[in-house]
Amino acid sequence: MKIRNGMATLLLVFVLSACATYSKVDTGQRVPVGEGITVTAVGGWASISHQLISNTGADAIWTVDGPSINHLTFYSAIRSGEPMLVVPNSDVELPVWRTGMTEPDVMEFVEGSLAKANKLPFIETENLRPHTFLGQPGFAFEFNLVNQKQLEIRGLVIGTQAGGVLRMMTYTAPKLHFFAKDEASARAIAATAQLTGS
Amino acid sequence: MHFTRRHLLCGCAATALTGCVGAGGGKPIAAGYAPALDSVEGGLWEIFNKAEADLKFSPLRMTDEELNRYVTDIACRLAGSHCPDMRGYLVRTPFFNASMAPNGMMQVWSGLLLRCQNEAQLAAVLGHEIGHYLKRHSLQRFEQMRDNATIAAFLGIAVAAAGGGALANLPGLVALANIFAFSREQEREADGVGLELMVNAGYSPIEASEIWRGLIQERDAGLTADERADRKDKSDVFFASHPAPEDRAQTLALQAAAYPGGKRIVGEERYLAQARAFRDMMMQDELRLHQHDRTLVIVDRMKAANPGDADPFYYEGEVYRSRNEGLDDGLAMRAYSRAIEADDDHGLAWRGIGILHRRAGREADAATAFQRYLELVPDASDRLMIQSYVGA
Ligand SMILES: [Zn+2]
What residues in chain A have their Cβ under 8 A from chain B's Cβ atoms? Predict the structure, then answer.
């Protein structure tokens, strides 16, 4: 039964790495979160060490209450033909992003990536809308998913595709209690995001 | 944790472990039957009663009343006087599977509903699962476990699945569904019972083998002849736990031919009327698996079942648009256009057309298509984004 073997997935990696090394991100401090992007922290976030996230596809992952609960994840430079996520030691074929995709395509790309990498029983997206990110026209949408532990998780995705690069930030937390708790702070952080050199 | 090992050992399993095996597996079950609590069978039922209590609250349950009533009605027509002894659960999981637990808890996964072409095919699957219940195959399997290691392994799975949040995860759900790998003889027997129940309820028995033909097509879709011979696809939950589908398709077809002909229910329209409301959702779940060759088999079978239906063409467009390689945009456009030919008010097909035009930089064509989409689907969840494209 492959389903049982293929559990080395992003969300579970987070669970396993509960003993991760964190460094507190001071409020008001501008910090890099991957290739060419900086943000200013708002709220009590801690950044997870690079070593531990190197095989997820993300460039930076922050958490408030622990990575198995809530996380803010930055994807700073997905290029044409590249997937969003990485599933270590697996031959799972993940969807790839391509230049020229419309925002509905990108939403489906994110949905499909999360679903396939994490073997989610279901994920649904909603409220795709225009949203400025990094000072550029971009998009935002929410998703609801049920993970393999049958926990209901909600997420917010904010991103922009320009100059042949897809840049995104996702905020993910259990639907019950946790999502609302840090949603405002996640949005505020997204609003501070800047491209370096711009 | 509500099911303790102590309880288990004090009950049935202790007797099983010491070789005092209760009889009954494989023997027909009476309507309204419930086993004695201190029997082996009672212990087995208890494990699954706990699991069922959790399944009831799973966020994956499809709780729509009308759909549940539809499936339950079919099951009841098949099961007759045994109907009150069984409970069906529709579970949103995009794989082909159905299962029957010894206590009458039946799971039907959405991936199965997506693949049935008509009511008779759904009845065939339900009849097969009811067959396992009627013949007490689970108990028979348990009684056939001769060595302690096997029994311990089985109890390990069962206890893990039944306690501590029970169906807490998809692997648990799969483990539970496949906890009893039925023997070939049992599968054959369940197929036979299922066929008989189908015929008694007025269904066309040939549809039972048709399901297996579809699964074979899907399994082999996109594979080279060598790969097919190799049958390397073990990733499918269903094929991992069941005997070769070729044999079953053939045996079922032969058995079906032995029943007298005459007017029998196939029920394409009836099935479509019930499934339509959930098909978009189930198809999107399927598309997210990114197994495009297989999905195209499902789409082709939908077209064959209901030739006038616009949806399968729309789904075909979605498959190609999602794959997004080589000539796929052209194939997607052709498929969406055929959906529009069949139903000019197919809002989602217009959305697909708009996206393809926009990808290609044909803004004016995109705007026309998107406008049509927004008129037809006013509460679209991507409305704000699409409006920004149209400039509205
Ligand atoms: Zn079976």
Answer: 1-4, 7, 93-95, 98, 100-105, 107-108, 111-112, 115-116, 119, 121-123, 125-130, 139, 141, 146, 148-150, 152
